[in-house]
């Protein structure tokens, strides 16, 4: 049998819950139809059995009243949808049984046709198990047998001709119709749920794919790549590029296992990722023990130099804390050099496999030199960055520092 609301509440999208809801909806409609139309059909009784019109009408009104009570009970979850619709049908069957006992032989077929319409109509809407159908058919069969008993002068052939065969056929047809529709409804609900679950699975996988893509690429670039299949390179007039590198990385990792090296790098770079996100920068990539990020892209802004310096200070603060923790544990640690340069860059995605968002230009090369020429544990910035942040941060001029491939560059250390 179908599950109750209590049973299905804990089940996520079960076919039983869906069937319960559909059954409840259909059966409520049918119950209201019985309440309204069964008394109206009393007009037929006035034409066929005027002598017993009020007797049958009282039965019809009792059936309508009981059905109203069943509807009310169902709204309070006191009875199931099957019981809700069973009430009017069993009462109408008994009502017909009584009506048959009052009919003349010539009126029997007409009432059988009415009953046929009732049963076939029910088969188009009612969803219940086969034994409910039997419980409705049996009173009709009993009523028919009683009618023939009352008219014992009818022989077997006359009984069949006067509606017996028709009523049996209709009862059998209703039984098959309702049972078939019940099973088809279950099958349709299961198919619908399977389709919904499949669509949800597809949506979930798409969401994971999108999340992975957005974890690799900036949102704006990922959207452009999904829409157009490629992302155009863009020129940024002012972007701040930040590089970090760990001093003595090779020597310090010589005594560490590969797993230990990866764990330490992951620990440091994971914290860098948080800092980069906090200060509105975009992580570009890591190469070995080097970390690269930039501000002012893919969405341009005027604060990227200040954002980059704040991120750099936060990174060095973390690395100092990391150093103290390692010393306390007697473990090896990394120290960080960090350089920032501001200028024009080109950013975009290259290749067709393993997409990577990258930036190019002399600004990037200079930032790399600022890092390699930097002071361990400090934030080293070039003159172009200094001019943009000097009113916000205290800086100390280091002089003209020789930078590989760039000659002498004016550099500054950010004090805070």
Task: Explain how this protein is built.
This protein is an alpha+beta fold and 416 residues long. It folds into 2 domains: 5-199, no CATH class; 219-414, Alpha-Beta Plaits, CATH 3.30.70.1230. Helix content is 64%, strand content 16%. It is built from 14 helices and 8 strands. It has helices at 5-9, 15-40, 42-48, 53-75, 81-102, 105-125, 130-150, 156-216, 219-228, 249-253, 258-278, 304-329, 362-372, 383-389; strands spanning 234-247, 282-287, 290-295, 335-350, 356-360, 379-382, 395-403, 407-414. Strands 1, 2, 3, 4, 5, 6, 7 and 8 form an 8-stranded mixed beta sheet that branches. α2 (15-40) packs parallel to α5 (81-102), α6 runs parallel beside α8 (156-216) and α7 runs antiparallel to α8. The longest helix is centred in the middle third of the chain and has 61 residues, at 156-216.
Q: What amount of the residues lies in strands?
A: 15-25%
Are there runs of 5+ residues with pLDDT below 50, and where?
1-12
How many distinct beta strands?
8
Counting structural domains, the number is: 2
CATH class of the largest domain, anyone?
Answer: Alpha Beta
- At CATH's second level, what is the architecture of the largest domain? 2-Layer Sandwich
- Here the CATH topology of the largest domain equals Alpha-Beta Plaits
SS element count, helices: 14
Structural class: alpha+beta
Order of helices and strands: HHHHHHHHHEHHEEHEEHEHEE
Quaternary organization: single chain
Shape: rod-shaped
Cα end-to-end separation: 74 Å
Q: Please tell me how large the radius of gyration is.
A: 42 Å
Please describe the biggest sheet, giving its number of strands, its sense, and whether it closes into a barrel: 8 strands, mixed
Average of per-residue pLDDT values: 81
Give helix % range.
55-70%
Q: For the record, what is the CATH homologous superfamily label of the largest domain? A: Nucleotide cyclase, GGDEF domain
């Amino acid at each position: 049998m179908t599950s109750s609301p209590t049973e299905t509440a804990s089940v996520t999208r079960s076919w039983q819950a869906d069937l319960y809801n559909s059954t409840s909806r259909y059966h409520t409609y049918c119950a209201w139809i019985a309440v309204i139309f069964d008394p109206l059909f009393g007009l037929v009784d006035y034409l066929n059995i005027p002598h017993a019109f009020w007797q049958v009408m009282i039965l019809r009104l009792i059936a309508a009243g009981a059905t109203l009570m069943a509807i009310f009970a169902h709204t309070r979850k006191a009875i199931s949808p099957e019981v809700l619709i069973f009430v009017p049908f069993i009462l109408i069957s008994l009502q017909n049984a009584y009506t048959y006992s009052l009919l003349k032989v010539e009126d029997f077929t007409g009432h059988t046709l009415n009953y046929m319409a009732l049963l076939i109509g029910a088969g188009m809407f009612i969803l219940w198990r086969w034994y409910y159908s039997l419980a409705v058919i049996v009173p009709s069969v009993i009523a028919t047998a009683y009618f023939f008993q009352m008219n014992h002068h009818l022989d077997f052939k006359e009984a069949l001709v006067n509606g017996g065969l028709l009523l049996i056929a209709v009862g059998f047809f209703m039984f098959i119709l309702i049972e078939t529709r019940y099973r088809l409804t279950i099958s349709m609900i299961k198919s619908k749920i399977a389709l919904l679950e499949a669509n949800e699975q597809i949506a979930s996988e798409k969401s994971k794919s999108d999340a992975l893509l957005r974890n690799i690429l900036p949102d704006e670039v990922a959207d452009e790549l999904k829409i157009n299949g490629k992302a155009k390179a863009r020129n940024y007039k002012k972007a701040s590029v930040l590089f970090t590198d760990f001093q003595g990385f090779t020597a310090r990792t010589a005594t560490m296992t590969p797993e230990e090296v990866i764990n330490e790098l992951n620990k440091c770079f994971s914290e860098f990722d948080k800092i980069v996100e906090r200060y509105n920068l975009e992580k570009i990539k890591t190469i070995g023990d080097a970390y690269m990020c930039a501000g002012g892209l893919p969405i341009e802004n005027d604060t990227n130099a200040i954002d980059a310096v704040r991120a750099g200070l936060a990174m060095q603060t973390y690395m100092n804390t990391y150093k103290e923790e390692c010393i306390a544990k007697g473990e090896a640690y990394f120290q960080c050099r960090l350089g920032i340069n501001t200028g024009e860059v080109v950013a975009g995605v290259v290749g067709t496999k393993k997409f990577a968002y990258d930036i190019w230009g002399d600004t990037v090369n200079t930032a790399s030199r600022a890092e390699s020429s930097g002071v361990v544990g400090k934030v080293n910035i070039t003159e172009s960055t200094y001019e943009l942040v000097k009113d916000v941060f205290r800086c100390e001029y280091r002089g003209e520092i020789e930078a590989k491939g760039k000659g002498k560059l004016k550099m500054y250390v950010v004090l805070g």
